[in-house]
Amino acid sequence: MYILFTGAPGSKWSSVVKNIYWSKDIDQSDYSDARTYYHDADTPGNKHLMHLGAYWDPGMEFENTNWDAPFSGEGRRIVKSHTFAYNLDQLKQTQYPIVIVYRNDVECLEWWKLCGEFSITYPLYNDYYKNLDHMWQEIQRQNRSLMLFIKSHYKQLLKPSNNKELCAILSLTEPTNFVYHNYKEKDIQVYVYQ
């Protein structure tokens, strides 16, 4: 079974993933040192692991084809793609939970730039997003698609306020070294369609 994640670049969706990823119910076999990225945008001078595990998007390591490719273990598999934003009505037919992370366009772009923009080492953004002007257009398009889906499915969506509630909604055991992640304090909105 899969848990699908989407959010525009800079939405802080990776922090939402990170704070449930270490649940014993998650297949973590997609993790490797090559599939990590550390940054210190929140804590200048003190880098933290922010990107972990495989990402699926055009021009990235996996391009929304075989979701099982990076996995070899057991448990629920987290599949992360910015461009899922464009296919949410089709993806809901899979009946897998979809976690949507939203921040406004300007804050997304500014956070993405602060976190390293095109020097981010994993995943690679250069091929599909090309330059800052194109990234800005894509953030706007992805957020518009997310908001249209949220508006048209609002009654079916759950809105956790933290990772404890997200674990409960997804029926995940809380990670052993649980770190509380309050979404409002981090200026993000999280929705779950299931």
The tally of strands reads 7
When the domains are counted, the total is: 1
Gyration radius (Cα, Å) is: 15 Å
The portion of residues forming beta strands comes to 15-25%
In terms of structural class, how would the helical and strand content be classed?
alpha/beta
Rounded to the nearest angstrom, the distance between the terminal CA atoms is 13 Å
Total of helices: 6
Q: Which geometry do the CA atoms define?
A: globular
- Average of per-residue pLDDT values: 96
Tell me the strand order in the biggest sheet: 4-1-5-7-6
Describe the largest sheet.
5 strands, mixed
Proportion of residues in helical segments: 25-40%
Poorly predicted runs: none
What is the string of helix and strand elements?
Answer: EHEEEHEHHHEHE
Describe the structure.
This protein is of the alpha/beta class and 194 residues long. The chain has one domain. Helix content is 28%, strand content 16%. Strand 2 (36-39) and strand 3 form a beta hairpin. The radius of gyration is 15 Å and the shape is globular. The model has no long low-confidence stretch (mean pLDDT 96).
Q: What tags apply to this protein structure?
A:
5-stranded mixed beta sheet; two-stranded antiparallel sheet; 16% strand; alpha/beta; 194 residues; globular; single chain; 7 strands
Topology:
Elements: E1 2-7, H1 13-21, E2 36-39, E3 48-52, E4 77-80, H2 88-91, E5 98-102, H3 105-114, H4 126-129, H5 132-152, E6 157-158, H6 163-169, E7 189-193
Parallel strand pairs: 1-4, 1-5
Antiparallel strand pairs: 2-3, 5-7, 6-7
Summary, kept brief:
This protein has helices spanning 13-21, 88-91, 105-114, 126-129, 132-152, 163-169; strands at 2-7, 36-39, 48-52, 77-80, 98-102, 157-158, 189-193.
